[in-house]
Design goal:
Length: about 280
Amino acid sequence: MKALYVTDLHGDKSKYRKSLDIAVEEGISVIVNGGDMLPKLGERHLEQPLFINGFLRDYFFELQEHNITCLAMLGNDDLLAVDALFEKVCGEFGNVHNIAGKKVCVGGYEFIGMNHILDHPFSCKDRVVTETHYIPQRQLSPVAGISNEYGYDRIYNWLEYSRTELPHMGDILKKLPEPENPQQTVYVMHMPPAGLRLGQLLYQDLDIGSADIYGFLKEKQPLLSLHGHIHEAPDTEKGKWINQIRRTACIQTGQTELDDKDMVYAELDLQKQEYLRKIINVK
């Protein structure tokens, strides 16, 4: 089975349309979207629901017309407040599945999604968790917030809150559905694992991957894991787009920024275990 993997589109309509065009041209039957699907600039509480109700619904309808399955989940820049709406719109289509915390079987393969991340320096803290030995990054904003329907629940002492109130990544991972056959399983996790340079930052020599995700994949040994979150990681001096944890291939395609002329994606041949990272013009 062949799949197209893309992540961190942040509402870039040209990249969404190009992903559909590629799938149709290449005869690819599954598109996997790894998170951060919605616009993040401007007023998110207004723009993200409009994007889901408008563009995404139309995009899903086009995928349905072409008999393409879409496996998708929201990411940390996509508000918690729109989760119910996203689930509702996905549920309108038999070919579209919200895989966050779920297992979906397609073509004999099991896809399991997980969209939580470790703390980052930005003020919106939706889907943020911690782990035992995690050291929070220096914050860029004095006030943090977790989204509600109309705005944000503000947290003024984020460092203390993160130490005492946040769920642990390991506990989140334990709650994921169990695969029946790990060698036919693909995990889609917005956060990359630690130690593989899939989360390599550009502005400092730091790999911000998750140790708990690394340990989880090392134990489960699925066929493949797909990641995103750090756009620049594969194109930094030390970064990588693919690495291994024993038998498991771990992929982080990275992505260009909003309205860039290029899009990054991966073509995945699961049966042959052949994976190609590609960069293509979308303008």
